[in-house]
Amino acid sequence: MLETENLRKTYPTGDEALCDVSVTIGGREVVAMIGPSGAGKSTFVRCINRLVEPTTGHVFLDDCELTGLGDDELRDARRDIGMVFQEYNLVERLTVMENVLSGRLGYVSNWAALRRNFPPDDVERAYELLDLVGLDGMEDKRVDELSGGQRQRVGIARAVVQEPKIVLADEPTSSLDPETSRDVMKLLTNIAVDRDVPVLINIHEVDLAEKYADRILGLHDGELVFDGPAADLTSESKGIIYRGEEPSESATAVGTSDSTDTETTGHRAKQQSLMAED
Ligand code: ADP
């Protein structure tokens, strides 16, 4: 479970990017963080893994306070956070499998990593994940031969092979076309159920957030102004989050009747029933 307590970030420039943001995210929740450009979405995600140092406040992952850790402990704790990036952050000249296995680097010794000598269990786990993300049979392809959507699938597999306690996705669809964006959102919702982890997605396309997330966090000027089920995001609440700015939508309207949507609904229904049993 991720918990932030009064998280505040003021950059040295004086920009107040986050003002006392307190949220708890757990279970198999898929949570979308939305808000206008400059609202603090990226800063929030980066404060969690301390790529940005919060000015004040606390971040807990289960019973570990991330904000209290020194460099070595933080390096270990980051294994528990799977990161998915807008620009994928893959090593282009390496293969799909090598990129996925790089997610295990935090677990193997430096010597083993240098020799790319991964334990058989890690390799097996990586194959399993390639299957899950729809890239089975592509393990030997170089990443620079892949499409954007395929690269993001590699990025997701790399994040999940870590066996994280939470997956954080920072604008995972911003570089993708609308159809591929929907596929990536579906995949992230499947990951939450299949791996039993919460997924926090910082996203600017509101329609994708509403369609795929269970819960929405709305930021405006660093303040959390909405926190509730996606179904409760009314046009009034969007008005509060965006205040005069037009919320971004993905380029093509998202329908509800195509076959893949039915599949997603199935997964969401499964997730809901699983959560109800908890
Ligand atoms: P979003 O992801 O919602 O677009 P950001 O977290 O990137 O928002 O930015 C929030 C605010 O913090 C903005 O006012 C932005 O200009 C400011 N900001 C972000 N990064 C920095 C930085 N490295 N130095 C100074 N100000 C920053």
Describe the structure.
The chain is α/β, with parallel strands linked by helices. The protein has one domain: P-loop containing nucleotide triphosphate hydrolases (Rossmann fold), CATH 3.40.50. The protein contains 10 helices and 10 strands. The chain has helices at 41-48, 71-77, 96-101, 110-114, 120-132, 148-161, 178-195, 206-212, 235-242, 259-277, and strands spanning 2-10, 16-25, 30-34, 56-61, 64-65, 81-85, 166-170, 199-202, 215-220, 223-229. A 6-stranded mixed β-sheet has the order 6-7-8-3-9-10. Strands 2-1-4-5 form a 4-stranded antiparallel β-sheet. α7 (178-195) links the parallel β7 and β8. α5 packs across α6 (148-161), α6 (148-161) packs parallel to α7 and α7 (178-195) runs parallel beside α10. The chain is globular. The two termini are 14 Å apart. The model is unreliable at 253-278 (pLDDT under 50). The site of adenosine-5'-diphosphate has 12 residues, from α1.
Shape estimate: globular
* Spans of at least 5 consecutive residues with low confidence: 253-278
> What is the name of the CATH class?
Alpha Beta
CATH homolog superfamily: P-loop containing nucleotide triphosphate hydrolases
Computed Rg: 18 Å
CATH architecture verdict: 3-Layer(aba) Sandwich
By oligomeric state, this entry counts as single chain
Major β-sheet strand ordering: 6-7-8-3-9-10
Instruction: Name the helix and strand elements from N-terminus to C-terminus, one letter apiece.
Output: EEEHEEHEHHHHEHEHEEHH
Summarize model confidence as the mean pLDDT: 87
What's the main sheet like?
6 strands, mixed
* Structural class by helix and strand composition: alpha/beta
Q: End-to-end distance, in Å?
A: 14 Å
Q: How many beta-strand runs?
A: 10
Small-molecule binders here are: adenosine-5'-diphosphate
